Input
Amino acid sequence: MNLKSLPWWGQVTGAAIIALFVWWFGSNFTPTELKAKAEKVASLEETLEAKEAEIRRARRAAAKLEELEREISDLELKLADLKQILPTQPEIGDLLKWIKSLADQTNLDLRVFNPQSLTEQEFLREQPIRMEVVGSYHQLGLFFDRIGKYARIINVEDVRVTPNRGSDRRATIQATFVAKTYIFRDLDDGSASGGDA
Output
């Protein structure tokens, strides 16, 4: 279409529209504004990339979260098992019941069960218990064997075996020893200040 073929008012209107378009384009898309808009687009693209990287990191962390929760659960179970071996409280009453029952099962006569004072060590407390039993060598060996298989750590030290001078002929020996059990010392609970029995 040619402008010359239009009536004069169409030519004026067309020229005005073209002039308006040129003015609008020039005012909105000057080189400085184009540069500013390009910088803004670049800045928005950088922000978008940073957010996408953050989303990827969050997705990786979420994937690891289940694995970490499983590990925490496993570690809590292991801690519960370790507390069986190294409890956090002395539990002398329970230990006495177990030792008495064990002595009865092995036909030993438990004469002395005397807990001594706690000894503080770096991560645990040591609870020595002086004991005296009367019976036979076989019964004493069986008693020590079962102590060694107990879930808690119990070390037997200072064993002294002497002939039994009592009237029971089936009890040929009298043994004294110190059984040491250990208690986990939680450094956060203030138990480092002193031992409780």
Observations:
- The helical segments are 8-28, 31-85, 92-105, 137-148.
- The beta strands are 109-115, 119-120, 124-135, 154-163, 173-184.
- The longest helix spans residues 31-85.
- The radius of gyration is 43 Å.
